[in-house]
Specification:
This protein is of the alpha+beta class. 17% of the residues lie in helices and 31% in strands. It is globular.
Length: 278
């Protein structure tokens, strides 16, 4: 008989299969023409409009220099309408978001290779729970490189199961509960569920723009059914003040901007109020 812990780990593993399909890596080009790992992003679908979301600092200095991998080791510079909060002051404001509304051509190129997360899987107004039910998945720079002797770029994603931080940590890291979700990351104690071993994890550079996911623990999933998951945040920072935490911007900030800017039918957040003006 399978234990509850092992069953939940199976749920997380199944959820990861879908999460990987809608998560991309951003690349930049080095002077020698080879690809270089840069950051991560997530494709979402809202009212049949298609977006790529990430962190503002991922694109603010690289708007015309970042590419997304496609099939056969090709890479694409995505076209669309970009919205960011590039004017934010990082030492005072932990909102860090970028939204690309994909052009029709860009959508046609990525659709099928990547999946688009459904809007009912966006964790709007999420109530944080002190449980190991949160999952980070993205592409760390140290796990991605050009294969020796070839032009092929190999990317190895990194996922981490964790718990939310205590409320007192928010003040220490200049964050707000209604804007951010902070999670624990102890790189010296990363547990590998496949090998059942604890190892040293990577420096999470490249995780920026990837997703923080909540996997409800109390779900019973039959074979063939889809595991319930919610995208609750976008990873933005591994704070210098305390390297045992990661900071994310709540998904509500992005969904409120999308809802207001494009007049789309998406639930309004009950946690944060955004007055969007261009």
């Amino acid at each position: 008989m399978i234990s509850l812990i092992d069953y939940y780990r199976e749920l997380q593993g199944e959820a990861l299969k879908d999460i990987k399909k809608c998560t991309c890596q951003f690349l930049t080009e080095e002077k020698n023409g080879k690809a270089k790992a840069h950051a991560s992003g997530i494709f979402i679908n809202v009212d049949d409009s298609y977006f790529l979301i990430t962190a503002a600092h991922v694109v603010e200095k690289h708007k015309d220099e970042i590419f997304v991998p496609l099939r056969n080791f090709d890479a694409l510079q995505l076209g669309g309408t970009l919205t960011t909060n590039v004017a934010f002051q990082k030492e005072k404001d932990k909102i860090d978001i970028a939204i690309i509304k994909l052009s029709e051509d860009a959508f046609n190129l990525v659709n099928g290779y990547y999946s688009f997360l459904s809007q009912n899987e966006l964790g709007i107004s999420h109530e944080v729970k002190k449980l190991p039910s949160y999952l980070s998945f993205g592409y760390v720079c140290s796990g991605s490189k050009v294969k020796y002797g070839t032009d092929k770029f190999i990317a190895k994603p990194f996922n981490y199961v964790t718990v939310p931080a205590d409320e007192k940590i928010y003040k220490e890291l200049s964050c707000q509960l209604f804007e951010n979700i902070i999670i624990h990351y102890d790189k010296k104690k990363v547990f590998n569920y496949r090998t059942k071993e604890t190892k040293v994890g990577p420096d999470p550079f490249g995780i920026s723009g990837s997703g923080l996911w909540y996997i409800p623990p109390n779900q019973i999933v039959k074979p063939g059914d889809k595991v319930s998951k919610q995208l609750v945040g976008i990873m933005i920072e591994w704070p210098i003040q305390n390297r045992k935490y990661w900071i994310s911007t709540r998904i509500d900030i992005l969904t409120e901007i999308i809802r207001q800017k494009y007049s789309l039918n998406i639930p309004q957040s009950t946690i944060v109020k955004v007055n969007f003006t261009e």
